Amino acid sequence: MAYKVEFEAPALDGFANLRTQVKWQNPDDEVLKVSIENSLFWVTVYDTDKLVGTGRVIGDGAMYFYIQDIIVAPSYQKQGIGRLVMTHIENYFTNTCSNGATVGLLSAHGKESFYTHYGYVKRDGDSLGFGMCKFI
């Protein structure tokens, strides 16, 4: 099936709905709106006009980049949409990042192997530490 790919932020309601479909909690609309607007790069995938997949890059745009919100609607998973999103994100990095830039991400548990196809490695705790996060 051919999907429509765009490189712009999704509508707030479509993004919130997609997050809800994968059982992620949404902050209030104003927080979500600011987060959407402050992203560096977006990939959105549509089946006609229905948002079915997304991914974005956040960060400082120079040294540090972070992959966020790689989401595919459950009824569209296993159809290559995640790979499509990641391919466009990797192209963005190729065209944007300077030598020495760092790209990070937090993988959902059990999805790590998806990202290893793109050269990402699990932090084993030896040379780089495990990494940490805090949810507020």
TrEMBL record:
Alphabetically ordered keywords of this record: Transferase
GO molecular function: acyltransferase activity, transferring groups other than amino-acyl groups
Residue intervals of the N-acetyltransferase domain: 1-136
Domain of life: Bacteria
CDD domains found in the cross-reference section: NAT_SF
InterPro entries according to UniProt: Acetyltransferase_Butenolide (IPR053144), Acyl_CoA_acyltransferase (IPR016181), GNAT_dom (IPR000182)
One protein family per Pfam: Acetyltransf_7
SUPFAM superfamilies according to UniProt: Acyl-CoA N-acyltransferases (Nat)
Protein name as catalogued: N-acetyltransferase
UniProt organism field: Pseudoalteromonas espejiana
